[in-house]
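> example.struct
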């Protein structure tokens, strides 16, 4: 699998991949996102084993970018993790440290990374290990490095596009910090509201543009609609009007 294909898969899953065998994994992580502030050199995530058997996990970190509406994970040395391998007995836990390898980011925008924690099958005694690495469960956790000079809040610009006759939601972030989007709804000019996506939709990083396909029968591009969303976990809805560019 190419890095680009792997990147798209990892981000699309957003938080974790369901275990191959339901109930077979006890791997849990907390918290599920980190921000390392300029005065910090490191932070950490706890990996714990809530299962009845031992587990092993591999930990890696990648630089996270968004280009042309697509997610990418790139190799990085800007953030390192310790330890890179975790071995947990039942009901044990281990602190996985994420360490900024250099000074805080310069400029006025945060940097984004993804911490991948993959549970690896533990071979039973006398069982031959198979070639190739297989994962039981994957967590993909956002990590953000805040810049020394500070960063402006997310500033979102929403638009509705047509791609091969299908509506696509496009969101550009002109701010210096990320935007986490969830619980997207659309209200048409007749006052009818359509819930388009329940729960987490995705992230828009600083200076980036992301796109998500929508159900055509719920959105009419020829009309101006009003959108509401939960942004960065705020309980209050954020309502914005859609600018509809020409196809």
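> example.seq
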């Amino acid at each position: 699998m190419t890095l680009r294909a792997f990147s798209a898969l990892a981000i699309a899953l957003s938080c974790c991949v369901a275990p191959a065998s339901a109930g077979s994994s006890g791997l849990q992580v907390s918290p599920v996102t980190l921000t390392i502030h300029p005065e910090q050199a490191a932070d950490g995530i706890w990996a714990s084993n809530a299962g009845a058997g031992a587990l092993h996990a591999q930990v890696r970190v990648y630089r996270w970018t968004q280009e042309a509406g697509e997610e990418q994970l790139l190799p990085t040395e800007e953030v390192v993790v310790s330890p890179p391998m975790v071995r947990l007995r039942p009901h044990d836990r281990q602190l996985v440290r994420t360490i900024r390898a250099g000074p805080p980011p310069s400029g006025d925008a945060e940097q984004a990374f993804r911490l991948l924690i993959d549970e690896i099958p533990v071979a039973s005694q006398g069982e031959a290990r198979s070639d190739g690495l297989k994962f039981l469960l994957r967590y993909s956790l956002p990590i953000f490095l805040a810049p020394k000079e500070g960063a402006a809040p997310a500033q979102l610009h929403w638009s509705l596009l047509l791609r091969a006759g299908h509506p696509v939601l496009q969101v550009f972030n002109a701010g210096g910090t990320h935007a986490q989007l969830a619980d997207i709804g659309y209200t048409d000019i007749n006052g009818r509201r359509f819930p388009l996506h329940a729960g987490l939709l995705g992230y828009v990083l600083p200076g980036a543009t992301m796109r998500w396909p929508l159900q055509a029968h719920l959105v009419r591009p020829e009309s101006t609609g009003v959108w509401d969303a939960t942004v960065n976990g705020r309980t209050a809805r954020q309502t914005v009007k859609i600018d509809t560019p020409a196809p």
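> remarks
Residues 50 and 81 are 22 Å apart (CA to CA).
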